[in-house]
Amino acid sequence: MEDGKDEVPEIAEALLQRHKQERKQLMATTTGMKKQATKKTRKNVLKRCDEMMEEMERRHKQELSQLDAGSDQTSTEPPSLDPQELLQELESEVASEPASESEPQGVSTQYGGSKTTKRNRQKERLARRNAKIEEVKRAAQLETTDSVDYRKIEQESMDELIAWHGLRVEEVRPDGHCLFASIQDQLAQRHGVDVDVQELRHMAAAYMKSRPGDFVPFLFSEETNELRDLDDYTKELTETPMWGSDMEILALANHFDCPIAVVMAGSAPLVMNDTGAAPKLFLAFYKHSYGLGEHYNSLRDGVPGGI
């Protein structure tokens, strides 16, 4: 029993760490959903984001309550565990069930039938596990059959859009610098400007500081429900490989006095600074097609046509 008590703080710490990671992941997911929402879909998207957040918080409270009560049902595994992995885990439990449990030794059936009672309990437990395995199998089959391949859908849609606009993709490395690397390529191709990624970060930061009022809407923090300090934001922008977004696109579009068009699946291109006098720059935005999440590529001239 003492060993079990010693494990409780470790289980609690693991649970809290998982909750923290899940909040961070859900925040990133809902932020992406809100970013892609149109005027028509924004209301439903915001409602769905709130529902997802409430569902997660409700589940977290339940898990913490189970831990406080000493429930052995509290799981330290994230709820997003792949069904196939869960299936393998459950099947392993059944396979490792000691044979002696189903046939207790040294208990005579002529004294009160205690052997039969214990065997039935074991059978019931195994039956519940087998039922759970079957449930997971059905869920895995449904997921395989009905799951939507968002990556494939987005890629096909983007290929059509990019070709229709007379452009072609110039791949850049999918990391925190992808937006700036894409703009770097566009400036070299369309403006004849040679600039590196770090210079672009500093240019964007300088423009933001010169026009702080233009960027207040972008500084709202989903985690704290407060406005971020602009100086703190620009410090992170220039000193870390922080991912760029609409805020940096707007700043650089104004710095170079040019429109920047962002092609994305499911909507018309987003154009920043459409009154800019210099040649337009073209970027591709992907939400599902890259392992690290959101990604930007440069779009060079391809076949005849154009936005």
From TrEMBL:
Composition skew (Polar residues), residue ranges? 105-115
Q: Where is the signal peptide?
A: none
Show the ranges annotated as biased composition (Basic residues). Answer: 36-46
User: Compositional bias of type Basic and acidic residues: which residue ranges?
Assistant: 47-63, 123-132
> Which residue stretches does the UniProt record annotate as biased composition, category Low complexity?
95-104
Which top-rank group of organisms is this from?
A: Eukaryota
**Pfam families for the chain:** OTU (PF02338)
Which GO molecular function annotations are given, in alphabetical order? Answer: cysteine-type deubiquitinase activity
* InterPro entries referenced in this protein's UniProt entry, alphabetically: OTU2-like_OTU, OTU_dom, Papain-like_cys_pep_sf, Peptidase_C85-like
GO BP = protein deubiquitination
Q: Region Disordered: what ranges?
A: 20-132
Q: Which residues form the OTU domain?
A: 167-302
This chain's protein is named: Piso0_005521 protein
The protein's organism comes out as: Pichia sorbitophila (strain ATCC MYA-4447 / BCRC 22081 / CBS 7064 / NBRC 10061 / NRRL Y-12695) (Hybrid yeast)
